[in-house]
Structures are given as structure tokens and as C-alpha cells.
TrEMBL record:
Any single biological process term in GO: mitochondrial electron transport, NADH to ubiquinone
Domain of life: Eukaryota
Chief localization: mitochondrion
Record's keyword terms, sorted: Electron transport, FAD, Flavoprotein, Mitochondrion, Respiratory chain, Transit peptide, Transport
Sequence ranges assigned to domain Deoxynucleoside kinase in this UniProt record: 26-227
GO CC annotation terms, alphabetical: mitochondrial matrix
Family: Belongs to the complex I NDUFA10 subunit family.
Compartments where located: Mitochondrion matrix
Name of the protein: NADH dehydrogenase [ubiquinone] 1 alpha subcomplex subunit 10, mitochondrial
Organism name: Stichopus japonicus
Function text: Accessory subunit of the mitochondrial membrane respiratory chain NADH dehydrogenase (Complex I), that is believed not to be involved in catalysis. Complex I functions in the transfer of electrons from NADH to the respiratory chain. The immediate electron acceptor for the enzyme is believed to be ubiquinone.
Length: 326
């Protein structure tokens, strides 16, 4: 969107772009229940944009391009393989990984909301920031993190997540933790085969005892399906079409409120800042000098020392630099 004096005075307008499919639909469920196999098809059938499940390098790809990853030192030396291999790592990797995933899912949900507001096109997502906490609950139950880490996460969540709008629909694919674990081990490789069944049981418990009730209390439409032998995607499409959305939190918004959301979401520095509090947590806290050194090294390595358009190599000649022509 381009801001003009009129939009500055009276705000952006969004409601005229929305139709019956201007919704955020989230597919959720335990690991290996089959979300990926239907989410893309569901988006195609409903004319929506597909957002695959977020990963730890989501920001890297947004910054550097698809498939690109930063040097792991710039993202806390985290990896999914390392989490599965050593969930009790003494350097606090498990909690560092969990906090990074919350941040990436928060940014992805921000991108989804921006797409909805700017285009009116609906979204189908695999999992979202709203269910990220089920992993926190599971690793806490397993004894893989400290209570202080658990409390810190929830403090960050409380300071940030209220700034978003809940999804319109949550589609929960239900399979027993035993079946999910079996599928995960069969499809997995390397250290994934060593992930204990108790972890899957913890995820199942957090989903059913906390996540699904919270989504219903927030006014989201929740569709739950027995997915032990997979199911019919057309049934999901039909069920969504029949929903009434009587209690949806989106029912009470207007252009004025959406304008406030948009202005917050459009400022990525604000989005990141709302997930930051000045508190010492050994697992994730860098020393001031170490942090500054890493930031400077990152800017030099990835040609980002200056504002976009003023870094070496971004323009072909001096005229383009002077007039910022591309």
C-alpha cells in the first residue's frame, strides 16, 4: 500500500476488499498427522494463499532469498536436528530453539495478516504462532527446560500475541500420539528416530487441554477430524463453507481498527521489539559486546550495513545511486 495525505488523515481502507473467503484458516495437529499433504490442496480449492509450516530459517529466507540460510552463529546456533539429538543440551539449546520458533511463527503470522489486509485473499497455514506454546508445554513436561524459561516464554507471549488477530478457523487433525509417533519414526531420519513417545503424548495433551479450548474461547471456529486413516479434503471445504462465524473476533473490527493493526504490522522493527524484554536468561542472553560484534559481522557479511539501496553493489552506476532508479 502507498500512503497518501488522505490515508494518513483518515486511515487505510480494507473492508471493501474482503469477501466470504477472506479468512485465515490454520491446520493444526501433532507431528506427522498429515497436515502438509492437504494444506496446499485446501488452499487451491478455496482460492487462498498457502503458507507452509514455519521453520527456524524463515527470517533468513525472507532476508536472503528462498533456500538461503545465515551462518548459524547469527541465529543462536540452533537446528531442529540438534534439538532432536540432544534435548538436554547443557548450553540451553532447547529453549533457544523454542524461542526462535516462536519469533519465526510470529513473523510468519504477521506476513499472513499483511497479505490478508493488503489483498483480501484468504490464507491457509500449517500451524501458527497461536499453537507454538504446545511445544513449550511438552518440553517442560519432559524436563528439558527450566521453570524460569517457561515463565519467560509466557511473558513474551503475553506482551506480543495480543497484537495479532486470532485465525477465523482452526482445523485440527486428530491422531493418537502413538500413531503420530509411529508415522514420525517411519518417515524420519537420523536423530528423529530417537524422539520419545512421551513427547508426542505431551503435545497431544497440550493441544486438547489448552490450545483447542483457548481457540474456542477466543471465538475461533474449530473443526476437529479423526485423521488416523486420513480423510476427505472436500468435506473440510464444505464444512468451512457452512460455518456461521457468529462469535469470530473479526466480526467486531472495522477499517479504523484494521488500520491500527496494519500500521503496527507494517513496521517490522515494532513487530520485533514487542518480543523483546530486558531480562537475563542464560540460555538466550548475549553479552552487550558479543551482541554488537555479531550484529556488525552480520551486516558486513550480508551487505546490510546501510539502509536498503545504499549498500555496495545494489546499484549499477552513480546515476542510479543519485536518483535511486532501478
Amino acid at each position: 500500500m502507498t500512503e497518501t495525505p488522505v490515508t494518513f488523515l483518515f486511515g487505510y481502507k480494507f473492508m471493501h476488499k474482503f469477501d466470504t473467503n477472506s479468512k485465515i484458516v490454520v491446520l493444526d495437529g501433532n507431528l506427522a498427522v498429515g497436515k502438509t499433504s492437504i494444506a496446499n490442496d485446501l488452499a487451491d480449492k478455496m482460492g487462498m494463499k498457502y503458507f507452509p509450516e514455519c521453520h527456524a530459517h524463515y527470517l533468513d529466507e525472507r532476508t536472503l532469498g528462498p533456500g538461503q540460510k545465515c551462518d548459524p552463529r547469527f541465529s543462536g546456533d540452533i537446528s531442529l536436528d540438534r534439538f532432536y539429538a540432544d534435548p538436554l543440551a547443557k548450553d540451553g539449546h532447547t529453549f533457544r530453539f523454542q524461542m526462535m520458533m516462536y519469533g519465526m511463527r510470529f513473523l510468519q503470522y504477521r506476513d499472513a495478516m499483511m497479505h490478508l489486509l493488503e489483498t483480501g485473499q484468504g490464507i491457509v497455514m500449517e500451524r501458527s504462532v497461536y499453537s507454538d506454546f504446545v511445544f513449550l508445554e511438552a518440553i517442560m513436561d519432559m524436563g528439558w527446560i527450566r521453570k524460569a524459561c517457561y515463565d519467560f516464554y509466557n511473558e513474551i507471549k503475553g506482551l506480543s500475541l495480543y497484537r495479532m488477530k486470532h485465525p477465523h478457523v482452526v482445523v485440527y487433525l486428530d491422531a493418537s500420539p502413538e500413531l503420530a509417533h509411529q508415522r514420525f519414526v517411519e518417515r524420519g531420519k537420523g536423530y528423529e528416530k530417537n524422539v520419545p513417545l512421551e513427547y508426542f503424548q505431551g503435545l497431544d495433551k497440550a493441544y486438547k487441554e489448552k490450545f483447542l479450548p483457548e481457540m474456542k474461547d477466543a471465538g475461533c471456529e474449530v473443526l476437529q477430524y479423526d485423521w488416523k486413516s486420513f480423510g476427505n479434503i472436500d468435506r473440510i471445504v464444505d464444512d468451512i463453507a457452512y460455518l456461521k462465524f457468529k462469535d469470530s473476533p473479526w466480526n467486531i473490527v472495522d477499517d479504523t481498527e484494521l488500520d491500527k493493526h496494519y500500521r503496527f504490522l507494517a513496521n517490522e522493527h515494532q513487530v520485533v521489539d514487542c518480543m523483546t524484554i530486558p531480562k537475563y536468561v542464560p540460555e538466550i542472553t548475549y553479552g552487550a559486546q558479543q551482541f554488537d560484534d555479531l550484529i556488525e559481522e552480520y551486516k558486513i557479511k550480508y551487505n546490510k550495513r546501510y539502509a536498503p539501496g545504499f549498500n555496495p553493489g545494489e546499484y549499477k552506476n552513480k546515476l542510479e545511486l543519485m536518483f535511486k532508479w532501478k
